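Thread: Modeling a multi-component assembly for a lab meeting

Hi all, long-time lurker, first post. My supervisor asked me to bring a structural picture of a complex we are working on to next week's group meeting, and I have zero experience with this. I have the sequence lines for every component (795 residues in total). Could someone generate the structure of the whole assembly? Inputs are pasted exactly as I received them:
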Amino acid sequence: MDLQDLWFILIGVLFTGFFFLEGFDYGVGILLPVLGSSDAERRQIINTIGPHWDANEVWMITAGGALFAAFPDWYATLFSGFYLALVLLLFALILRGVAFEFRSKEDDPRWRTLWDGAIFVGSLLPALLWGVAFGNLIRGVPIGADKNYAGDFFDLLSPYTLLFGLASLIVFALHGAVFLDLKTDGAVRRKAQGAVWALWIPAVLVAGLLLIASHIDVDLFDQPGPGFVAALAVVAVLAVGYFQRAQQPIRAFAATGLTIVLTMLALFWFMYPNVMISSSNVANNLTVDNASSSSYTLKVMTVVVLIFLPFVLVYQAWSYWTFRKRITADSPLEY
Amino acid sequence: MEALDLARLQFAITTVYHFFFVPLTMGLSLLVAIMQTMWVYTDRPFYKRMTKFWGKLFVINFAMGVVTGIVLEFQFGMNWSEYARFMGDIFGAPLAIEALLAFFLESTFLGIWLFGWNRLSRGVHLAAIWLVAIGSNLSALWILIANSFMQQPVGYVINETTGRAEMDSFADLITNPTVQTHFPHVVASSITTAGFFVLGISAWHLLRQNELRGFFRQSFKIGAIYGLIGVLLVIGIGHAQAQHMIETQPMKMAAAEGLLESEDPAGLSLITIMNLDEDKELFSIRIPRLLSFLAHNKFEGEVRGIEDIQAEYEATYGEGQDYSPSIFISYWSFRAMVGAGFLMLALAAGGLFLLWRKQLLNQTRVLQVMLLSLALPYIANSTGWLLTEVGRQPWIVFGELRTEDAVSPNVSAEMIAASLVLFALIYGVLMLADVYLLAKYSRLGPVDDETDGEPAPVAA
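Re: Modeling a multi-component assembly
Sure thing. I ran the full set together rather than chain by chain. Output:
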């Protein structure tokens, strides 16, 4: 296997890890105002992700850095092309990160409501935007011969990409609801279970719809492998309901996680060997070959990743193990 | 304004703003780790109160550093896509490594430290804060390796077919002579920043003459010692750095000194007023021979001026380009940085002396000055970066790529302006909220929890 292919896979792994982990963080943030009817409940909800959200977000920063290092042209075209969408994303992420740290450091209910709003918007907007962005990656965007994006912000918003955004939003919310079922108890847990059911049917519908739309809009099933995996992702969403009914929240959580993993697998498999598909001219596609760094850089980066990624996985897993207990109404709360 | 100017303005604003928070994160994480180590080894509750109090302020500051950092990583692609294409082979690597080695460490263990007070053994919990400190300082190393490449490109070749720069020696990249002074400078500045942060807030409490005197007298001492160590290191490293800069980026030093013509021996400018339209010196006070000394460690020797270097660069890089940066910004930011540095040296040393003579606590004026000195490291940090980055212009990568050729060709001025307004608004609001919380928790002083019972030791 070429190093370019390895790095294409690694980028996929980093984004998948990011969506798996940050996906439930976004979901928790989106459900915060819905499920937390008192300040105590809202604190209970936020503290389930308190020790983790920041490290989860580093998966995105690492994915971005890896994109820059391994595929400079992909990074350059994507980030300059999706400009205003990324400005919105940054705006949301800035608000959200600060809000976690600030909201409980002042007693005034207006202060807390304000930051809770920031957590909500700061979670909802990225959950939507990431779906729109990845929808555009597989649908293709206008790219000129100079490798630059040639469209504008509104070219990124088609029915298909918006549907993709809606799907990511609902699946992340569902992922978060299942996570809260696992991590809380009492009234909050009961409400989270209610949210799982409330979100499950829309999630199944939108996932099925997205699968059909992918067939129509991007000819997904022309490639049997990715098409099959994408169909499995829809099955995984269906399984969430099954496990929830059987009162097996760990398996339900694995199922929402699997939905995310399979979707990403289908997506990257479908794109390969392209990294950015040009809707204006196939000759302008960015591929793993024409967008990558030199083989020397890829070698260096491969060595670094092989040495250090295992450490990261171990200590991050350990942090989840350390804070494995459910957050109850009388747990000591930091946030 | 054109897209290029707006992109530069946006980079300046978002970077300087980010760097309000980063040095304190670096320096204070280390100091809190030291305090907590003292607690674990001496078992004196006083050190636990110290750890908790300064640790709380550290965490408030930390979040701002994290979120504003994301903007920078994205910005290289958003506003500077040509730069990313041309330099990504080299510049992207340290950025990715920074995230993998430093950000994961820092953020995972901050979560563990913050939420682990009552869940982990003392030893493990102590290890967590040390890993946060190591992570945040390590992140500076990698981003400065990246930045040093822009100041002094090493370890690369230009691929003739693609026209792109390609890495050919990772070892050269990470042992860049520039980063060898750059990194220690930033670490020492961070120690200074944390020292003066602690010193300033302590001075505020000492002015109040309240029951927290014991705690904050001790804090003042720690802050002053820490700040003194930091600023002494900065001055020493800064000297070495300036000499290296004269070798590798003589134009930056010439602009920072307002030196139009080469001189031997060269005097150090205390104040120079110029007519910038005609590049003519109107008025100048110089200390004879001192600039030569700074450059060569002896009171003679040539220091080259802007005109000579311009002529040389025209021969090397081509005519029709002004190779000098803004003299105004370079000159005054250099003076602000160095001035703030020496002022901090005097204040930290003076404060310690008065404390030792037991004359500090009744000197209201002195304590007021100490409180105000909280601004000095921030001035020095910001102007230091202005000099480093503006002084490199017109280059984005010295000698290889000009800033004007690095900007995204497909991003319009309107788009950058819109995002600039949005960032400025949110940054303004967040600064208010951050300062409000820092002030609130600074005022509150140490809050005892159930395990603290022992009063602060009486020592000065």
